[in-house]
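Input (structure):
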């Protein structure tokens, strides 16, 4: 693993330009494959020509350059993280600078604070998250969001019983919000969290952005 001996990067852009970063064709992105829509992430990455690895065991972490925590059910995923003894190894990798992206349930897992008292998260990202925040009537919806870091036109986004970010620390940055100001995507150092699911649409810009190769 290339990040162990380097300090955590101070910004996402730096994470992408560190000298330790590899060529795009050598990058392997792990996808936590315990539960949820990990296959959709793998299919999207495959479509843009990126190698992937399903992550289930602590030893899988040593073969990857970055990791995606997919959407699904965060309580189940948190439980399985403990069953598979992944909690501390995963936290260590993230603390050491491994790029991580959590989508929906994955965003819940990254948060240091939840409004609800379950599940027990990895507590790595300085955001406060409200699970199932959009209530029953609007449990699922779609929106076109302007996301400056991606360039180009708005991203068509899908929200499914989505969490939202209710508080964000000064060291984190909002990267997308709804028209009413609700924060639905943020980044902090080597971590990105999105309430929505770019893996469920054909637009591959977010996955492309996440690939941490030397530009
Ligand atoms: N509401 C779910 C949870 O709390 C997340 C939904 C999703 O990942 N699509 O885990």
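Output (sequence):
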């Amino acid at each position: 693993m290339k990040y162990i001996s380097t300090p955590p990067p101070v910004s996402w852009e730096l994470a992408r330009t560190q000298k330790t970063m590899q060529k795009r064709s050598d990058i392997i992105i792990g996808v936590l494959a315990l539960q949820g829509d990990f296959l959709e992430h793998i299919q999207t990455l495959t479509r843009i020509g990126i190698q992937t690895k399903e992550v289930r065991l602590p030893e899988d972490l040593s073969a990857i350059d970055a990791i995606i925590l997919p959407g699904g059910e965060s309580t189940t995923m948190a439980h399985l993280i403990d069953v598979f003894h992944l909690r501390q190894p995963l936290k260590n990798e993230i603390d050491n600078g491994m790029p991580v992206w959590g989508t929906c349930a994955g965003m819940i897992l990254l948060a240091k604070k939840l409004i609800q008292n379950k599940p027990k998260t990895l507590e790595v990202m300085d955001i406060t998250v409200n699970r199932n925040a959009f209530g029953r009537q609007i449990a699922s919806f779609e929106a076109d969001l302007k996301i400056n870091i991606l360039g180009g036109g708005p991203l068509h986004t899908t929200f499914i019983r989505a969490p939202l970010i209710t508080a964000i620390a000064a060291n984190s940055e909002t990267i997308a919000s709804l028209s009413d100001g609700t924060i639905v995507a943020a980044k902090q150092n080597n971590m990105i969290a999105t309430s929505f699911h770019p893996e469920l649409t054909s637009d591959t810009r977010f996955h492309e952005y996440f690939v941490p190769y030397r530009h």
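Notes: Residues 12-210 form a domain with the Rossmann fold fold (CATH 3.40.50.880). Residues 4 and 93 are 7 Å apart (CA to CA).
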